[in-house]
Amino acid sequence: xxxxxxxxxxxxxxxxxxxxxxxxxxxxxxxxxxxxxxxxxxxxxxxxxxxxxxxxxxxxxxxxxxxxxxxxxxxxxxxxxxxxxxxxxxxxxx
Length: 94
Prior knowledge:
Elements: H1 2-73
């Protein structure tokens, strides 16, 4: 009897360790690895988006600077000396 119960304990422990290893493997393969990949992909996309926005902002600033430099070299238009006409005040009819 002593031999039988010890063998059963050892087999039970082996089976439990195998099950634990299987579930741990499934957890790593089906959850941790995909989560790691998605996190890495999202970080890469955020980095690319920030880089793209910084480039667009730099181009916009450069265009504004060029337009500002072009505007300072041109003479501002002189105000028109012509009088548009007399101002007529209209009253509201009721």
